[in-house]
Amino acid sequence: MADSWSSDTGEAIYRSRDAVKNLKIRVRLQRVTSTAVLSQQLQQQVSAQQERGVIELDTFSNQARSAGDHGDDEEEQVVGWQEKLFSQFEVDFFRMESVCQNPLDRQYHGEITALERAGGRRNCRIFTYTDYDRFTNLEEQQCQSLMTPSKAMPTFLVERMGNIRHRRQERHPVEGNVAKTRPVTWEPSAEFVKNSHVINTPVQTMYIMGDLGPYGKLGQKENEHVLCTLKADSNGVITVKPDFNNSKGPYRLETEGEKREVWRLTLENASTCISQEEKEREQRVYKDLYVRHRDYLNSLVGQDFEMPPPGVLRLLVNGEVVLAKGYEYDNLYIHFFLELPNNWSNLPFQSLSGVTQTCRTRTLGKDNVAFFSYPFNFETFFRKEDETEESLPQWPVLYFEVLSLDLWQRHRTEGYGYLVIPATPGCHSLTCSTWRPLECGTVAELRRFFIGGAPELEDSSYVRVPGTFKGDRLSRFGFRTETTGSVTFKLHCIQHARAFVDASSLKKRRQSVLDQLGGFSQQGSVYNVLEAFQRARRRMQEARESLPRDLINTTATLGPESTA
Fold first, then answer.
1. Are 317 and 378 in contact, with CB atoms under 8 Å apart?
2. 67, 285, 378, 458: least CB-packed within 10 angstroms?
3. DSSP 248
4. pLDDT of 175-188, one tens digit each?
5. pLDDT 10s digits, 288-300
6. CA distance 31 to 245
7. What backbone phi and psi angles, to 5 degrees, belong to 507?
8. How far apart are CA 475 and CA 457, in angstroms?
9. In what order do the strands lie in the sheet with 262-269?
10. Virtual torsion, Cα 540, 544, 545, 546, nearest 10 deg
């Protein structure tokens, strides 16, 4: 008998797009007695042997049923979501109108009075506590469950989530005009973390309870035990603890006390299945909804891509300042800007510079690391002026400066660096080393330590050869530097270009064809003129076939205007 019990009493999580009000659970509670165990064993033996002992088993079973405790050993109920089944304690409690304190209590009083007039309640031991009851306003650890091992210790998450029991009667309106004096708590206490820094998605809870007291002594709070806990939120997530039995054996419940009675619990999903016609209609509704949503998104995006003008390269850079490590002081921030070489331009309203937030460092290994995760983006355009040049001359350069700021407002320059935007599109992760100018002498180091400040570059582009430099060589003789840390960037580069056709080469090709046509026409021979005309016409057709379609259309539209 012990081998058929189910020991898996953990919770199960289900997701449903159907309304939770359609959920129904069949709960079967049966007391396990010595007579019932012996009867089950005899039934198994007789069914296996198929002998005449079946008649004796029938007689024995009738005697066992007659010897039961008033037929109170087994009960089965089908419970719906938030369906109220009163216990004997609630019937005795709400029978008196004087104990009613709120409209819900008075509603229960009226329902119990109506049940007594109709002949009593249909349930005996199985009852429920809904999300609105005052008796469900308990902590999860205080709910007594006989299926939880006595030596089980609550986990860290259970302790932190213990106070997230949002009941409707506890929800008080918060005045919006009360200003918070401390929006940020720099040193939160353990109680503050427990109450505020947890995910508290509001859920509705329902308990299916069982009164496992002896017959004639029902209605005592110490005999009430949790049989099943149901939770549901607005996202369609339903939590059942313990899970439905399905093909597993029943759950074992054992009471405490002198008798230590054993009960058998079975949970089944008794929800009505949707019919095939309703299922098909629901699928059609969802399909129509998805199609409309897709059409709406397509209307927002459009059918045509945004094309740059011919001969223009469009460069989109979505970047991120990931981290900085290896620097001497804490509270780092980074100032950066993008330098555009010749023939590059950007949108007028777009800024090509930025400053990150101040970030504290943490020790990882031997380095102090500051995680910024600061996003930025640039959009630039390149147009060729010299069409004979095939490759791009230069790419934009990202210059950056790492600084520190402490509690006493002391600024220090921690390092300079630069990053050339990659010429290939895609995702790039780049780590750039930095350096800072160094001043000789002990006085400079003492000044840097006590009051802050250090030698700085007037122009940060001198970290590299600046774009405005016109000489052949840039001399840094006598300029002392010190290697500091490094900064890691992550770049997502997108290049967008449109096919470019040289208009001057097209004009030269046309002129050569016309010259050949004119030279042959001067010979005076009609035959030679026609033959030259045919050759020129074939060359013109070959020239037009080698050109892109968009250029042909543009030439056709501009022809009448030029002649006018």
1. yes
2. 458
3. S
4. 444 444 566 777 77
5. 999 999 999 888 8
6. 17
7. -65, -40
8. 15
9. 74-80, 24-32, 262-269, 251-254
10. 100
Q: Which structure tokens are listed for 384?
A: 């060729």
3-state secondary structure of 136: helix
Q: What is the rounded distance in angstroms from the CA atom of residue 400 to the CA atom of residue 413?
A: 11
For residue range 347-383, what is the model confidence (pLDDT) as tens digits?
888 899 999 999 999 999 888 999 999 999 999 999 8
- Residue 364 has phi, psi (to 5 degrees) of -125, 105
- Interatomic CA distance for residues 437 and 427, integer angstroms: 32
Which pLDDT score is estimated for 485? 94
Strands 397-405 and 237-241, bridge-based pairing: unpaired
Classify the C-alpha dihedral 244-247-253-259 as positive or negative.
Answer: positive
**Sign of CA pseudo-dihedral 83, 87, 91, 97:** negative
Cα–Cα distance list, 190 to 157, 174, 183, 211, 524 (Å): 14, 24, 18, 38, 107
- Least Cα distance to 416 among 328, 483, 331, 341 occurs for 483
Burial of 476 (0-12, 13-18, 19+ CB in 10 A): exposed
The full DSSP string for 479-531 is --EEEEEEEEEEEEEEEEE-----HHHHHHHHHHHHHHHHHHHTT--HHHHHH
Task: Name the E strands within 96-248.
Answer: 126-129, 203-211, 224-233, 237-241
How many Å apart are CA 410 and CA 447, to the nearest integer? 11
Q: Which residues contact 299 (CB under 8 A, 6 or more apart)?
A: none
Please, what sign has the CA dihedral across residues 183, 188, 192, 193?
Answer: positive
Tens-digit pLDDT profile for residues 4-38: 787 777 889 999 888 888 899 999 998 887 655 55
What is the spatial distance between Cα 30 and Cα 470, in angstroms, rounded to a whole number? 96
Query: Which tokens in the block code for residue 459?
Result: 């122009």
Q: Which residue has the tokens 């300079």?
A: 416
pLDDT computed for residue 262 by the predictor: 86
And the tokens for 174? 């918060």
Cβ(333)–Cβ(355) below 8 Å: yes
Alpha-carbon distance 205 to 132, whole Å? 9
Q: Could you give the angle at the alpha carbon of 40 between the alpha carbons of 36 and 41, nearest 5°?
A: 120
- Per residue in 74-106, pLDDT (tens digit) is 899 999 999 999 988 888 888 888 888 888 888
Q: Could you tell me which of 249, 273, 211, 246 has the C-alpha nearest to residue 86?
A: 211
Residue 475 has what DSSP assignment?
-
Q: Which residues contact 410 (CB under 8 A, 6 or more apart)?
A: 451, 452, 453
In the predicted structure, residue 526 carries a pLDDT above the cut 60: no
CB atoms within 10 A of CB 256: 13
The amino acid that residue 508 corresponds to is K
What is the layout of strands, in order, in the sheet containing 126-129? Answer: 12-15, 237-241, 224-233, 203-211, 126-129
- C-alpha span between 184 and 193 (Å, rounded): 13
